[in-house]
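Revision sheet: structure tokens.
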Amino acid sequence: MTETIAGVTIPDSALAKEATGLIRDTTNELIYHHSRRVHLFGSLQARARGIEPDPELLYVAALFHDTGLIPPYRGDEQRFEMDGADQARAFLREHGVGEAAADTVWTAVALHTTPEVPYRMAPVVAATTAGVESDVLGLHLANLTREQIDAVTAAHPRPDFKRRILQAFTEGFRHRPDSTFGTVNADVLEHFVPGFRRGDFVDVIQNSAWPE
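Predicted:
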């Protein structure tokens, strides 16, 4: 039976079901429920913005977007967003999805913490960021009805979410602080990791290899 939450139909193709099972089995309750909310809020925000993302691609992007925070997907060097993006694209390729679609999902996951830019890109990219910003930052909630918000959080609760997601962020990239240069992720480490000093763009320019 097709599942519908807050008027959003959850994709039930073989690809979507396998993605659901994979993320449920290999992540944790925090990431799973957050990712499902991102899909739901992203779908609702897309409607409010008058854009039409491919439902299946948006679903996969949402499910994979934070996988780079935790094993077995978490790496040691690149940005956590890129870890998740690489995994999402690999998953889609393994299931015969074309390169253009797989690249769109890669971009949606890779840019989901980047302000503004995703909204000028493909609908899947824009909707993924809109879902993330709704659930994590509480942005654009005025676009949604109270009934829609309640339906999403009833299906996928967010108990103590602010504290828990910040802890997940901290644990997800404190071991690779250089990857946070120029990103909002540096804010997290500055708050929660004693002794962390964010990279400074001006310092990089002034201390570059150029002699002048």
